[in-house]
Amino acid sequence: MIAIGAPGFSDWQGSVVIYNKANFATASILFVDHNYDKDFNTIMGYSVAIGQFFYDKVNYIATGAPRSKETGSLASIGDLNYDGFKDIAVGAPYENEGHGAVYIYHGTRFGLSKNYIQRIAAADQLSAFKLRGFGLSIATGHDVDNNDYPDLLIGSYMSDKAVLLRSRPVMSIKLSIKFNLHKSSEEIAQIDLKNQNCQLNSILYSCFDVVYCLHLKGEYLPKIQNVIVSFEIDSKLKRRGFVKVDENKLHQFNREANVSTKSNQCLEPISIYLDVRFVVFKCFQTYNINNQPKTEDKLTPMSISLSAKLNKEEQKSEFCKECPILSNEASISRNLDFETGCGIDQHCTADLRLDVRSNLSFILQGLNTEFPLYVQITNKGENAYSTKLQLAIQPAIDVNQISSYCEEHIEHEMVKINCDINNPLEEEQSKEIFFLLGLSKLSSTTQSITVDANVTTPSKSFSLKCEYLNSNLPMLPEDLTSDDESEESDVEMGNLKMKEEKVSRREAKLNEDDFNANTTAEKEPMLKLVSMKKFLSFD
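The chain above was modelled as a monomer; its predicted structure follows.
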């Protein structure tokens, strides 16, 4: 088959005439109705290229139209990247106010790439030559520097110059990673924080190894290539894991390696250490205490990202015909889940029960100076991670005693307390917390103390389950009691109305020994603060 451009056909709309070698007496005329696309059919056939641009190995015709928006000259330039498909160069001599440019398109198994792979502009990369009309003509098919890659000769007719563009080897990098037990070939699918199998400076850590491999592919490449691999450990939650480089704990770092081409080469694994002090469980948090940063969670998988590039410092400043260029952005990212103990699906469905109690039925103003509060959280479901207890006590009172894993602050005339509970709070496990609240600063007009309590934990599909309690503790005037009389009276407790006996001053004083946190069946507290109990779900 012979294709001949006929740019003057049909009043210079242009066409391509195709002859069959077996019969030159007949010809087929290829042209597109210029009424359909007036801008495209302008001197079509000025340049013609034939090549196998698709996977079917059939020859296709590409033609240029110098008065169209983009194409002027056009040439099949061979297989620049040695992927088995022919590539083309398209000249645009009138682009950039007449300076011109050349576009490179790769052939693929689906045809020519929709977007250009490279743009060579006379006004940018070749500005020193002061070219005009660059790209009107393209000559190809010759390897002038003997590196086995075809080179291009581009005409710049308005400058009376021709520019030789030499090609360099094209290389691709394929990355792969897997996770192994530390110093073992056994692959892991989850991180087990209970297995603290690494030690740094006398501190035990849970750790695992990242095994990463590079496959450099291309034709006529140097046998060894210097590559820089960039690592990013847990980009969103950087405190959970680190890599020890010299004496530093890093989340981002580079490694340089000499890699053999045309083979899958695995490099020395890197060890990632997880500090369990920071691998705690982030959950919905109503109150931000002292503007401290929120801690990271372990229900979110840990991400490990790698990217690779050629070490350009190893390449010479002048043109290096053997030095390859990358045809792709080499990167990979994988996630590694944490072991949660919640079955195969790794989704934990907890069932939390909240119990708030005190051994005071009421408070006598002027007599009771402290108010004990006991909170018990029980999990009846699967492991509860990132369990948080939140208390809001109104009016604002002093906190005389608080657990080391709780913090309090004053906000809007109320005390807010946040506590981190066991991580995890396992099935059928309970956690009890004691608070001692001071009453010395209460106003004499205060009628009750309100305690709002809720406990939250991530549940299945990462929604939040919350158990909520609201209770009121009445304040009774001091003259309500006497030392020698005992009568019955009605006492309001939230929404509950119950019979209470008037008690003496001695009986109303705080006695913490009356509360046994480990016994619920044999000995109940004097009063269980419950008036409302319900589940809330936050999506």
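The CA atoms of residues 396 and 413 lie 5 Å apart.
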